[in-house]
Structure prediction request, 227 residues.
Amino acid sequence: KAGVTQTPRYLIKTRGQQVTLSCSPISGHRSVSWYQQTPGQGLQFLFEYFSETQRNKGNFPGRFSGRQFSNSRSEMNVSTLELGDSALYLCASRLAGGRAYEQYFGPGTRLTVT
Amino acid sequence: EDQVTQSPEALRLQEGESSSLNCSYTVSGLRGLFWYRQDPGKGPEFLFTLYSAGEEKEKERLKATLTKKESFLHITAPKPEDSATYLCAVQGSSGGGADGLTFGKGTHLIIQP
Prediction:
């Protein structure tokens, strides 16, 4: 079974621009979560989507948004990029429901803002 | 607010030298504690889920245990390929069931041949 895929893998943007990242979950997984990873803050939860609805959101400004499509693929958008947005953005998918919250991560998109 | 603290931040061991990594947590209603392994340039790889105090799980040279306040990841006779950053995360019930995981900052483990 194919794992979580993320595109693009690397991205360089200029401050003030916007960016869209894409994530395809493991087949059959209906929940997709996004995380930001930086050396200083570690892994921080951005938001989770299930059945095209955002179920929860972490403590990030409104410049960070996302959506999920009917095939469970998800996109994350960051508008008006700031230097501090440089990070590894990770997508994770899981089977929704049940006791387990085991998430499986993709390889990430490395975003550099200059 | 859920919190996770991992120690030590970095650990260097000789091949075959067993040790333990610590994960201390505070959470409102633990729904699960998770261990992940992350190699440089890659996403975290799922290792274990623990649900209640006293639970233990094993996989090859790794064994995870859970108490009401902390979890340990025991590494027995490690090999160089066990070198990685090990991340601990918790899911609490404070957010109504749809919270993302709260991660610690990880322990960077180096196994020297």
About this structure: Chain B touches chain A through 26 residues (CB under 8 Å). DSSP finds no helices and eleven strands in chain B. The first strand of chain B starts at residue 3 and ends at 7. The mean pLDDT of chain B is 92.
